[in-house]
Design goal:
Layout: H1 13-25, H2 50-64, E1 66-68, E2 88-92, E3 100-106, E4 113-115, E5 128-130, E6 135-138, E7 152-154, E8 159-162, E9 176-178, E10 183-186, E11 199-201, E12 206-207, E13 222-224, E14 247-249, E15 271-273, E16 280-281, H3 286-290, E17 296-298, E18 303-308, H4 310-313, E19 320-322, E20 327-331, H5 333-341, E21 345-346, H6 361-364, H7 424-433
Main location: membrane
Protein name: Cell wall hydroxyproline-rich glycoprotein
Subcellular location: Membrane; Secreted, Cell wall
């Protein structure tokens, strides 16, 4: 399936909420241009207020940095009425003030090629910045640190490069961060998991870092790190995410070690995917005892051993359980009965006697099939380039990409089975607090 699509009609529901929220808080931002603003402004142009003049400078600099716009998104970016520019959304200033400000930019699915100039930092009133499914390249400018009201940053499915954009740590209002399907590389600062985010998507980049011990500090509801070269183990602190975490996808991340029993504390989790890694040991019994909300469990293509417990197969909401291509030696009768009645339990290519389509006797006698003592298994989680890979050494090759949920297909958020709806409920809560 092609990742490029013709831009769909813009939806205004989420944008309207964001614009109202941004307008309620705009009085807290500065209107100074600082060292930015190299665009010459025609003295004949009249602007409603200085902030719209700043926005004009930023957008004209950006237009000059665009070298392909096949759907003519920026053809309307002329004149002083920046609020009429396609993809630009304005909102009134805070109560008691006159005029409007640019509070949202949505150029999703525009297939625009270019880069982000530093003048974009002049858009200090932005609450929403969506650029998914374009061809923007280069690095993310540090001038975006001026966007103190930014709530959603979606740069997914572009060609951005360089290290993790640390400018996100200067965005105090940020709740939704989507950087997937780019070419970012290197390590991800551990402080990212201390940031008060609601959703975090870093999958399908070139990141190389061990998952830090403070993973459990993150309050996200959705975490997708798939198709990177993380290495190391899943820290036990993951259990601290129980109150908020609904979905976590760590497939094809070069993970090693055992699954920590603290996973069972994630009682609100609906999706857990750690397939295509090098995990060892048994499935924690805590999964079947506590995770009553679990709907999708995928541990395929690892080195897991032991017996599939009945408690997992009998989870009330579980409708997709994949444990193929491991070294399990048995499954509870309840699992076999469930598999006979449903076609969404896949346990092929294991070492389960009497079950069809299993590994050969030679494979089941190999060192990879030997059980391990998770209490003694040492695990490295180095954050150096290449990532930790436990006792298996360090891989400098980028792991092959495995199919993951595609980039967002709507204007405001992902819509695939592994991604949440737009975080409008969170925004409504913000509005109630103002």
């Amino acid at each position: 399936m092609s990742r490029r699509r013709r831009p769909p009609p813009h939806s205004s529901s989420l944008l309207l909420v964001l614009l109202v929220w941004a307008a309620a808080a705009t009085s807290s931002t500065s209107s100074g241009e600082g060292s930015l603003g190299v665009v010459k402004v025609d003295p004949a142009l009249k602007f409603e207020n200085p902030r719209l003049r700043q926005a004009y400078i930023a957008l004209q600099a950006w237009k000059a940095a665009i070298f392909s716009d096949p759907f003519n998104f920026t053809s309307s970016w002329n004149g002083s009425d920046v609020c009429s520019y396609m993809g630009v959304f304005c909102a009134p200033k805070s109560t008691g003030a006159q005029g409007r400000v640019v509070a949202g930019i949505d150029l999703n699915h525009a297939d625009i090629a270019g880069y982000l100039p530093p003048e974009l930092g002049l858009l200090s009133d932005l609450a929403l910045f969506h650029l998914n499914s374009n061809r923007f390249c280069g690095i993310v400018p540090s001038s975006l640190r001026r966007m103190k009201l930014l709530h959603e940053l979606d740069f997914s499915n572009n060609r951005f490069v360089g290290d993790f954009p640390k400018v996100v740590f200067s965005l105090p209002s940020l709740k939704y961060l989507d950087l997937r399907f780019n070419e970012f590389e290197g390590s991800v600062p551990s402080q990212l998991f201390d940031k008060d985010l609601d959703a975090l998507f870093l999958n399908d980049n070139r990141f190389q870092f061990g998952i830090p011990p403070n993973l459990g500090n993150s309050p996200v509801s959705v975490l997708v790190l798939a198709n990177n070269n993380l290495g190391g183990c899943i820290p036990g602190s993951i259990g601290n995410m129980a109150k908020t975490l609904n979905e976590i996808i760590l497939l094809n991340d070069n993970l090693t070690g055992c699954l920590p029993p603290q996973i069972g504390l994630l009682t609100n989790l609906t999706v857990f995917d750690v397939s295509f890694n090098r995990l060892q040991g048994p499935l924690p019994s805590t999964i079947g005892k506590n995770m009553k909300s679990l709907e999708q469990l995928d541990v395929a293509r690892n080195r897991l051993t032991g017996v599939i417990p009945a408690s997992i197969c009998q989870l009330p909401r579980l409708h997709n359980f994949t444990y193929s291509f491991n070294y399990f030696t048995g499954e509870a009768p309840a699992c076999a009965a469930t598999a006979a009645n449903k076609n969404n339990i896949n346990g092929r290519k294991n070492c389960i006697r009497g079950k069809l389509d299993q590994r050969s006797a030679r494979e089941c006698a190999s060192p990879a099939a030997r059980p391990v003592d998770c209490r003694k298994l040492q695990c490295s989680s180095s954050t150096s380039p290449g990532g930790g890979r436990g006792s298996g050494g360090v891989s400098k090759r980028r792991p092959p990409r495995v199919s993951t949920p595609p980039p967002p297909t709507s204007e405001s958020s992902p819509s695939t089975r592994s991604h949440p709806p737009p975080p409008s409920n969170l925004l409504l809560l913000l509005l109630l607090r103002l």
